[in-house]
Design goal:
The complex is a heterodimer of chains A (240) and B (624).
Chain A: E1 3-6, E2 9-12, H1 19-25, E3 49-52, E4 55-58, E5 69-71, H2 75-91, H3 106-113, E6 130-131, E7 137-140, H4 149-156, E8 163-166, E9 173-176, H5 193-196, E10 203-205, H6 218-221, H7 224-239
Parallel strand pairs in A: 1-5
Antiparallel strand pairs in A: 1-2, 3-4, 3-5, 6-7, 7-10, 8-9
Chain B: H1 9-20, H2 27-38, H3 43-53, H4 57-66, E1 78-83, H5 86-90, H6 93-104, E2 117-122, E3 134-136, E4 139-141, H7 146-157, E5 176-178, H8 191-198, H9 213-235, H10 247-255, E6 263-268, H11 277-284, H12 286-300, E7 304-309, H13 317-329, E8 345-350, H14 360-367, E9 391-395, H15 396-408, H16 410-414, E10 424-431, E11 437-442, E12 445-446, H17 447-454, E13 459-464, E14 470-473, E15 480-481, E16 491-496, H18 501-515, H19 521-538, H20 544-560, H21 564-568, H22 571-579, H23 581-585, H24 599-602, H25 604-610
Parallel strand pairs in B: 1-2, 5-11, 6-7, 6-9, 7-8, 10-16
Antiparallel strand pairs in B: 1-3, 3-4, 10-11, 12-15, 13-14, 13-16
Helix pairs in contact in B: 1-2, 1-3, 6-7, 8-9, 8-12, 8-15, 9-10, 9-12, 12-15, 18-19, 19-20, 20-22
Chain lengths: 240, 624
């Protein structure tokens, strides 16, 4: 199998794999929030950015090439990933202590992983609407990081096309595909991949709050990277 | 002319869709027509269109939310968009905007209660040579002054239809100040195309006699394309949109793509503020541009050409369509062009107000009727472009040059300009110069020469290549305009010594914030943070720590952003901090950062309550 170098580690890859896929397969975690193994890459969160020949590329879209030298965990890149995570926090309204997703939220876990100690930038305190109209699914746009995992998952995994992005720039946000624009008139269901795969608390199933005590939650015992690599490996074993 | 009466909804939707061919890709073009007819896209029309096209309504709403010139709310019988480029501002647009709003009794960005009018600001409308300018009901009204604004107020209040307004209001001048060898004399229409076809051999019987007539003719056609490609290579023509990619490589890649559909797209989404060369080319030399596209079609084997024209130039639609019609009549477009087996035709697509759509992958999505979000870098459009087919995307000026190259030869073109930047280039001069307008020079002309010719005698700084380009001061005026030195789309905005360059930075910061598509985190959030810092400095509340923050955000955006917009949006900041630090320094409150919150002072209440005053009751702890 051909190999490339991720910092000093030699990583084997299959033809056609992206750098991120190859790294994950080899047990090397590259931070990411908008990437999911079962979905097409989106390249929007930019956390997985790596440097090749002095130029930045998102590793979720960049094909692995034989002998390539990829800078990934350099001090500068980690600092920039941390700053990007801080940006995600300050552009929304994230109240971790009160959020049911706390402890199993990928945004929060990424912040821990990257050593984020504060939000650094000034908070924008946007005014966004919540959609609690649906009996079993809630949408809290304050917590949305616009990774579009739900948009893609609803279309390709659920076959429903419930979500889309509206607006532009800092004012863009998640829109619901229903005549009223409300979740209650859409085809969403709590077991949908769109809900399950939401990395934050933006989309959640209702009526199942705070069931796991603090200390036992998904990312309380192990960091995000360990959990994600294990899930990726299990997925590979199942689906190849 | 926009009808003030609004026809009933379903009937018109049918008519509009019939005009655009009833396919999902037509949705943006249909929405533009709806906006022009009703001055908004009513909810009922969204649902009707969604049903007819089989597209979810939410995606239509997503288009309305994305494109600046589409709106869900009624914008009034008269919709005024005032161009808000820095050059418009320097010419008094903000004062005129206040005057217009005041006299009309309408708040900026709001529709007047009686539904008569709204006044909005928009990014540069491509009239920097004759600003301040506006679009009124999507038609340009350049050269605004107080008198004109007052007349406009009266006409709007009297509800006079636009057709009855003084016609000189709508006259857009082509201010061509200097022409050189390419654009001085218009090319005879068909000359470049004929040369391209003739390269395959003029006399069919003289060669390839053993092939059946059609095969022979096709072979001849193909040989002509191959020979013209050689001329394009010989010319060393590089893209005129700013990036400077070699046209020959692009064309060859599409030519060599596997069998199947392929497309030629002309990028007329001239969105870089201060740029207007494409407007003038499309007005004065549309034939040359269409001819360049047709020649490209010949070379790459495409049958379909699309010209993507920015919404601000919608007024050129009738003109462009009449040129296309005439070319069809002359046998220069359509089936069997000039009697050869070449089939090629061109359709117009319009943008709806999004700077990002000047980026080729975003433009392709927009043509497909989607939100103009730039796609990931690979695979390139030459392999995987419009409708997933190999696609050439070139700038208006590039195609015009290609037509000239085909007619006059690659060697002729390569003899002009500099070794790495052949040919001539069009430059758009605006701002503090006596003769704003279009200047054609051989590549490699010095900034100083252009400034002298345009009467920019008191220049302090020039923004070269628009806000995403480079800001230069007097020390750089001997530099040259070409790919080896100051590359770019050919825009020079001149700022005189009496200007405050911080106004320029503020304008650019707000421009990028407004135009960020919102896809990637660094650009979406970074452009907003930068705009906030500019506002902080504008209030005179800056500090050196803020300057460091601005620099860090710029570095982050440059390295982490998804596309060129985010990667270059920090340029005005880094350039001005480096070259004109005083404009930042004079807006600082302190020479160093002094936080409002003092920790030791905050502990005072606790100290007095507990009666403690030892070392550890202070912050930082005081030595005993």
């Amino acid at each position: 199998m051909p190999t490339f170098f991720l910092d000093d580690r030699e990583v084997a890859f299959k033809e056609g794999q992206t750098i991120l896929q190859a790294a994950m397969s080899g047990g090397h975690y590259i931070p990411h929030l908008c990437w999911r193994p079962e979905l097409d890459p989106h390249s929007s969160c930019r956390l997985c950015t790596v440097i090749i020949n002095g130029r930045p590329f998102s590793s979720c879209t960049q094909p692995a090439l034989k002998g390539q030298r990829v800078e990934c965990d350099t001090e500068a890149l980690v600092a920039m990933r941390r700053a990007v995570t801080q940006m995600l926090f300050i552009e929304g309204n994230h109240h971790c202590p009160a959020c049911e997703k706390s402890g199993r939220c990928k945004l929060q876990a990424t912040a821990y992983l990257l050593g984020m100690q504060n939000s650094h930038f000034s908070h924008q305190f946007p005014v966004r609407t919540r959609d609690l109209s649906h009996p079993t699914v809630s949408l809290d746009r304050d917590r949305c990081i616009r990774c579009e995992i739900c948009v893609r998952a609803s279309r390709t995994l659920d076959g429903k096309d419930v979500f889309a992005i509206d607006g532009r720039g800092i004012g863009s946000g998640l829109a619901v595909n229903s005549p009223s624009g409300l979740l209650k008139d859409s085809e969403i269901a709590p077991e949908d991949a769109a809900v399950r795969l939401c990395p934050t608390g933006a989309l959640m199933a209702k009526d199942q709050g705070f069931e796991v005590p603090i200390g036992d939650r998904l990312y309380d015992r192990e960091p995000l990277s360990v959990v994600e690599l294990r899930e990726y490996k299990a997925r590979k074993a199942l689906h190849g | 002319m926009i009808q003030l009466e609004r026809p009933s909804v379903p009937e018109s939707v049918e008519r509009i869709l019939d005009r655009h061919g009833n396919r999902p890709q037509a949705v943006l073009q249909a929405l533009i027509d709806v906006q022009h007819a009703w001055h908004h896209v009513p909810g009922a029309v969204v649902l009707a269109l969604a049903e007819r096209l089989g597209v979810p309504a939410v995606r239509l709403r997503g288009l309305i939310g994305f494109y600046s010139f589409l709106s869900a709310d009624f914008q009034g019988d008269f919709v005024v968009h005032l161009s808000d480029n820095i050059t418009d501002q320097m010419a008094g647009s903000r004062e005129l905007s206040a005057r217009l709003c005041g006299r009309l009794g309408v708040a900026l960005g709001k529709t007047r209660a009686d539904g008569r009018v709204s006044v909005n600001r928009t990014s540069c409308t491509g009239m920097s040579d004759q600003g301040p300018s506006a679009l009124i009901n999507y038609r340009p009204v350049p050269r605004l002054d107080a008198k004109r604004v007052d007349l406009i107020t009266d006409l709007i209040n009297a509800r006079t239809p636009l057709d009855e307004w003084p016609s000189d209001f709508f006259v857009v001048e082509s201010r061509i100040r200097r022409s050189d060898v390419i654009f001085r004399n218009a090319l005879d229409s068909g000359a470049g195309l004929r040369a391209s076809l003739d390269r395959g051999g003029k006399n069919l019987e003289a060669w390839e006699e053993d092939l059946a007539p059609t095969d022979a003719r096709k072979h001849q056609l193909d040989r002509g394309g191959a020979e013209t490609l050689k001329e394009i290579y010989r010319s060393e023509l590089r893209g005129r949109g700013g990036a400077g990619f070699k046209a020959g490589i692009k064309w060859q890649t599409v030519r060599e793509a596997a069998k199947g559909d392929r497309f030629v797209i002309c990028n007329a989404d001239e969105g870089e503020p201060g740029t207007f060369k494409d407007r003038i080319l499309l007005t004065e030399h549309a034939d040359m541009v269409f001819e360049g596209m047709t020649i490209c079609g010949h070379v790459v084997g495409a049958r379909h050409g699309i010209m993507y024209v920015r919404q601000e130039y919608f007024y050129l639609r009738d003109h462009l369509q009449s040129v296309l019609r005439r070319r069809r009549e002359q046998g220069l477009l359509g089936c069997n062009i000039l009697g050869s087996p070449l089939d090629f035709d061109i359709e117009l697509h319009f943008g709806a107000g999004a700077y990002i759509c000047g980026m080729e992958t975003a433009m392709i999505k927009s043509i497909e009727g989607r939100r103009g979000i730039p796609r990931r870098r690979w695979p390139l459009p030459v392999h995987h472009g419009y409708l997933k087919s190999p696609t050439v995307v070139n700038n208006v000026e590039t195609f015009a040059c290609a037509a000239a190259i085909s007619a006059r030869g690659g060697a002729w073109f390569a003899g002009l300009g500099t070794p790495q930047s052949t040919g001539t280039k069009l430059f758009c001069l605006s701002g503090d110069c006596e003769r704003p307008g279009l200047y054609e020079y051989p590549m490699g002309v010095s900034v100083r020469e252009v400034l002298r010719d345009s009467g920019a005698l008191d220049a302090m700084a020039i923004q070269v290549g628009g806000p995403s380009g480079i800001l230069i001061g007097e020390g750089d005026f001997n530099r040259t305009l070409c790919f080896e030195d100051l590359a770019g789309v050919g825009t020079l905005m001149v700022f005189g010594k009496h200007r405050d360059l911080f106004d320029v930075i503020t304008n650019f910061a707000l421009f990028f914030q407004h135009e960020s598509c919102g896809l990637c985190t660094p650009c979406r959030v970074g452009t907003t943070l930068l705009a906030n810092y500019v506002k902080k400095f504008e209030r005179g509340c800056g500090s050196p720590v803020d300057v460091e923050e601005v620099k860090n955000i710029c570095t982050l955006m440059k390295n982490m952003s998804h596309c060129g917009l985010g990667q270059t949006a920090g340029n005005p900041f880094t350039d001005s901090l480096l070259k004109f630090p005083a404009i930042w320094a004079q807006r600082m409150k302190t020479a160093e950062f002094v936080p409002a919150f003092d920790l030791d002072w905050a502990l005072e209440e606790a100290r007095s309550l507990t009666g403690r005053d030892d070392a550890r009751a202070h912050f930082p702890p005081v030595e005993a």
